[in-house]
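Let us practice reading a record.
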Amino acid sequence: MTTELERVEAVVIGVGWAGGIIAAELTKEGIQVVGLERGQEKSLDDFTMQKDELKYAIRYELMQDLSKETLTFRNNSEQRALPMRQHGSFLLGTDVGGAGVHWNGQCPRFLPYDFEIRSQTVERYGEDKIPEDMRIQDWGLSYDEMEPYYDKFEKMAGVSGEDNELTAPRENPYPTPPMMETPLITKFKDTARNMGFHPYHLPSANLSEQYTNPDGQTINACQYCSFCERFGCDYAAKSDPLITVIPTAKETGNFELRPNSNVRRIDYDGERATGVYYIDTLTQEEFFQPADVVILTAYTMNNTRLLLHSEIGEPYDPETEEGVIGRNYCYQVGLAATGFFEEEKFNIFAGAGALGAAFDDYNGDNFDHENLDFLHGGMILFMQSGLRPIANNPVPPGTKTWGREFKQQSTKFFTQHYTLIMEGASLPSRNNYLDLDPTYTDEFGDPLLRMTYNFTDQDHSLGNHQMEIMEEFLYEMGADYVETLYDFGDYTIVPYQATHNTGGVIIGDDPEISAVNSYLQMWDCENLFVVGGSAFPHNSGYSGVTPTIGALAYRASEGIKLYLENEGGELVKAGPEKKMKS
């Protein structure tokens, strides 16, 4: 039996960065918000003295329980998709705060080129430059429109960084100075300058100094302990939703957080969302929460899955290319090259999640693609995140992976190697998409999400181009051997690559090829807003999607307030093909 609860103004599904930002912004305006999170409630106390690599980094304490819910994967539609039974390529977070608790803290802005990628590509190179199966499209808003929301996110999170002429232009400086410059970062920057590149410190949510944000929340200075990615920060020195936006929402008195509340379906009457059905995972009771506005702010995959299961929006069909839900799933082309040094030693075991430097000379359209067989590019970076001992045993090429030789070489080169990373853009293909699996279900009997994805010719060309640069760079640094990876084959669901999954419920100004407008309001359901990485029509060439998700969440909160103020009247900017009215 389902228990119907008292109606609320707004219900948020998933309380991580996006859900936390929207809850904070709405409650500050006096709007009553209920936040539903399927995981447990967490606080700083849960992470105190918990620098346990085995528990968090190897056994995935903060991640989704794949025995209860996972997704299925295949490379193409001719294959049968099988369930992902272990965390590998990406890490699906759970609990209050979501992936914002276990992230590294990298905080790049996307380039102006990203938001108008199709228009700018056609203007510079012509239509024929776009491959036949590539489906790049403009976002329906420009970088200039996004800039104030990026600024708001950075001030809330206290981001530490420094300007660079090839990154996105800024109206204001970073709220806090860049993190410390270690000898390894100096070595990277000096080599980059010698090669004619433009290096800069990575923008970071591991703060260089204590900072109090505009909402009155204090974030402490980073201790450089190396326990960032896959861990919660027990120093409160990594900006996350638990110490910023969620406390802000709670302090208004207008926010009710309900952990252990797993939303199974959004109720939809064909025009509007009337509320959500969820299970209390502790008692197994089902509830229906009516709401004036429903805001879906779960992880990328879960946003798409919940819409498909709720039958809201038309599912994407790769054969006809009709439908929009599941369209433009994109990932990231992440590669690494490692230099081994016979004599030189480095202190690489100390660091922080986003401590490092990068250059953007081969990112976006910062370089001429006229004679290249790919578009976009990616940042090349060095990260001094700190190497924890269980998962890090680098050895030179040709070394056996077991026995005495492996032990000797891994001990020697633990402090005598230097790894560069390339985070390449992922551009959409008509054949990469998300839908519901026809065979496999979760613990409640609901269909799992199915991911159909493979690297494209574009991905391979981009990756090989960047690998050449990284190989040359490491030899320029003085490496004796360099381990590279060219022609990296098909995409695999393991090992870990990046948790930067995007697309499926994409933003745009044309309802035929997008699911939400520039305020993240669904074209097909006027009181439903869908916010997260699911909105990206492609993924940029940066290691980090969080600031863009945060910026979109701030913009969406404005749209929700406008919608409520107008009592369901026409929203400010609905797009050319369809106007939304109650």
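A brief commentary: Residues 263 and 278 are 4 Å apart (CA to CA).
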